[in-house]
Structures are given as C-alpha cells and as structure tokens.
Amino acid sequence: MTEIIDGNAVASEIRTELTDAIETLADAGEQPTLATVLMSDDPASETYVSMKQDDCEEVGIEAVDVDIDPDAPAEELYDTIDELNADDGVNGILVQMPVPDHVDDREVLRRIDPEKDVDGFHPENVGRLVAGNARYKPCTPHGIQKLLDSAGVDPEGKDAVIVGRSDIVGKPMANLLIQKAEGGNATVTVCHSRTGDLAAKTREADILVAAAGVPEMIDGDMVQEGATVIDVGVNRVDADTEKGYELVGDVDYESAKAQAGAITPVPGGVGPMTRAMLLYNTVKATGRQADVDVTLP
Ligand code: NDP
After folding, report:
1. Whether residue 211 has its Cβ less than 6 Å from ligand 1
2. Which of 85, 99, 107, 168 meets the CB 3.0–4.6 Å disulfide criterion with 113?
3. Which atom of ligand 1 is nearest to the CA of 273?
C-alpha cells in the first residue's frame, strides 16, 4: 500500500504546536506580527496574501497588510520595507512575489532586515543556510523536510533527486538535504531543463522532489519502486469545472502512486506545509527579536 502523505494533517499539528509558542511569547508581553506587502493586482497573488493573513489570524499572529499600487515608483516599495524594518512592532516581513517589472526584486530581497526575513531569501540567510547554520529555512523545502519526517523517511544515506533549481524551492531543498544534520545527509542530484536523460536520474531516486512547474511531467515510469515522491508543483490546467480549470502537480499522481512507497497529493501535500512554515518562521523571528526562548515543533 502506498502511503499518502497528508500535508493538511501535518500542517495542522504544526499550527497547534505553534499556538503553545505564541502563548509563551504572550506571557512575555510579545505579540508576533507579520507584515505582508503586496504590490500587484494579480488575483493569484492577492489570494496568496489573503490566505497568509487568514493563517496568521487563526494561530494568533497579527497580520499587517500593506498594499502598494503596482504603478507606483519602486522607491515606494523600498521605503515601505525600510519603515517596516525600523518598526519594532513588526517581526516578519513578506513581500509577495512577483513584483512589477520596474522593481528590482533582488533589491527587495536585500533590503529586508535579515532578522525579519521570514521567507529566508535575503542573501545573508541564503548564505547561512548553505553554511549549515540557517536562521530561517525557506518555507517550502522546510515543510518538505517536515513531511518526510512525518512519513518516517530519514534522508540519511538515501539518493534524493530534485527536479528544479529555483532559488525558492530546488536550490534550498538541495541545501537542506545535503546538510550534515538531522533531516539531511542525503546524496543529492539537482535536475533542470538542461538535464540529459531526466528519467534515468529520477529512477535512481529514493526521494524524488518534483518542482519544475510542468503539469504531470513525472509519471510512474520515472519513479523507482518504493520511492518517496514529493510533488511541489501547482499548475492550472483547463478543465470542465466551475472555474474552468483545475490544479495539478508536476507528478502524474495515479501512475506515480502505483510505483511509490509514499506520495504527496496536490492539493493537500506541500502547499499547506509552505503556509505553516511561514507561521513557524514568524514565531521564531519574534522569539529571536524579543530574546524569548520558544520551543518550536
Ligand atoms: P521556477 O519556474 O522558478 O523553476 C522551475 C525549475 O524547473 C527550473 O529550474 C527549470 O529549469 C526546471 N524545469 C522546468 N521544466 C523542466 C523540465 N521539463 N525538465 C526538468 N526541469 C525543468 O519554479 P518554482 O521553483 O518557483 O516552482 C516550481 C513549481 O512549484 C511551480 O508549479 C510552482 O507553482 C510550485 N510551487 C509550489 C509551492 C507550494 O507551496 N506548493 C511553493 C513554490 C512553488 P531551468 O532552471 O533550466 O529553467
């Protein structure tokens, strides 16, 4: 029987455990606060931000919502970040990507105070992650580490293959899995659009992480029997539904499930974990800034 790794259930456990940490902070007079900054009128980005705000509210994190006109000069966003950096009442800052073309997204990442960078994308935090001394682990790969743990899959000694080398998923995933630390110690291969014979690589994987953004590109023929398959992809494909589309992963679920030992569904796998780990990083940030010891799950 293939184990279906239930991201909703694991995320819910993490949120419950975070509630205890938030109480500890409250006892010390600290209210964790996340500022979300949206400079876009893309409906998907608006939805992501409002979901993040709802998540915050549910666990007792205050969400500060900053909207910037997408046509405003880039400086308006940079100045907003400076103000949030200087605001002691704000513990975490998240700028929803993508920002408009006239804004330099690297400048945005550099500008956020690394102590408040709960996405973990500031160059200093990326460097710390690579060096094995992460301040804030990026939410999606950190959530995947938690999912593996929940399924009893220890990466130590295993061959992990990651399809995708983006800065937000593929690269930090590789960095976490190769660390000489709990949840790491895997032998990692990172594949991308120029990889020759992708299937030969994926078939070697004991742990296969699909993060390419290509609907259902990994099918059962590309999966080793008994492998753990983590599907990060969230792709809209046309479908005869009320909305006119449905969400599918990068993995062809049915054929991959027939081969896999464990697999994450889409939706209900990695997505809820990404959201939970943002809350985790915000609570961690608050503890660090207030010098309060919080026990995190
Ligand atoms: P990017 O587009 O930034 O990166 C995609 C990566 O996949 C690139 O490295 C690209 O290679 C590689 N790739 C693309 N096509 C192929 C192919 N045919 N064969 C092999 N490699 C390929 O995407 P993200 O990392 O941001 O996101 C990946 C997916 O995960 C998307 O569907 C996204 O929506 C989803 N996502 C889901 C999250 C969640 O919480 N569930 C969070 C973040 C992302 P190259 O570098 O050569 O171009």
Report:
1. yes
2. 85
3. 40
Distance 64 CA to ligand 1 centre (A): 29
Tell me the C-alpha distance between 263 and 183, whole Å: 18
pLDDT the model gives residue 71: 98
Q: What is the pLDDT of residue 53?
A: 97
Task: Say yes or no: CB of residue 85 within 6 Å of ligand 1.
Answer: no
Specify whether 53 is catalytic.
Answer: no
Domains for the chain: give ranges and CATH numbers.
28-116 (3.40.50.10860), 139-272 (3.40.50.720)
Indicate if 96 belongs to the active site.
yes
Q: What is the pLDDT, as a whole number, of residue 119?
A: 98
- The active-site residue out of 55, 119, 206, 252 is 119
- Tell me which residues of the chain have a pLDDT lower than 50: none
pLDDT at position 85 is 98
- Taking the whole predicted model, whether its pTM rises above 0.90 is answered as yes
Cα 36 to ligand 1 centre (Å): 23
Assess whether the C-beta atom of 142 lies below 6 angstroms from ligand 1. Answer: no
Q: Does the active-site annotation cover 52?
A: yes
Distance 232 CA to ligand 1 centre (A): 8
